[in-house]
UniProtKB/TrEMBL annotation:
GO terms of biological process kind: methylation
Name the UniProt record assigns to this protein: Methyltransferase type 12
GO molecular function per UniProt: methyltransferase activity
Record-annotated DinB-like domain positions: 40-170
Record field: transmembrane: none
Species: Mycolicibacterium mucogenicum (Mycobacterium mucogenicum)
Length: 176
């Protein structure tokens, strides 16, 4: 297995996907209602269970590109992080989200050595938990705000779309 060091850290600010379509994966936030995000997350999680069951899930297509397993670990953790952030937004006034370095997490948790079957179950469970969180956002709470450590401001509505882009984009990444 290639060392995690071969992966170039992603330092891009992806918040632009809230205002224009992603030219890579085609995701267009303007075409999705925040109230539809929960169902889309659940559907995507079922697809990841199948992807992670594939015989080549642990293999990197190139040394500088994550394997399906590593992407699956990342998606699992994304669901957990976004669930935490949305819950903060629902319970606190203008919370600041703790910083999360996804690349540091991938190395510290050794994504490439995890068991794909375990990751599939954990991803599926995390997806359903965050989907339930989105499905139960009160109608008058979608505009509640939260701030990322770099100052980016989200509402629950915009963070749900940002979250959905992340998982759609990574499904695209593993399908290339």
């Amino acid at each position: 297995m290639t060392t995690p060091d071969a992966i170039e850290p992603d330092t891009k600010d992806w918040t632009w996907v809230l205002s224009r379509a992603c030219p890579e994966c085609g995701f267009d936030a303007s075409s999705v209602q925040p109230s539809d995000v929960a169902a889309r997350i659940r559907d995507d999680a079922a697809d990841w269970v199948h992807r992670l069951a594939g015989s080549g899930a642990k293999a990197r297509p190139r040394p500088d590109v994550w394997s399906t397993l590593e992407y699956g670990c990342h998606i699992r953790d994304v669901h957990r992080i976004f669930d935490h952030r949305v819950r903060l937004m629902l319970t606190e006034e203008d919370p600041r989200f703790p910083n999360w370095d996804q690349d540091e997490t991938a190395i510290a948790d050794d994504y490439g050595s995890q068991d794909p079957a375990v990751v599939a179950t954990e991803l599926f469970d995390a997806a359903n938990i965050v989907a339930d969180t989105y499905a139960n956002v009160p109608a008058d709470s979608w505009d509640r705000r939260g701030l990322r450590s770099n100052g980016s401001e989200f509402t629950i509505a915009t963070i749900s779309l940002y979250h959905l882009h992340d998982i759609v984009h990574h499904a695209y990444d593993v399908s290339r």
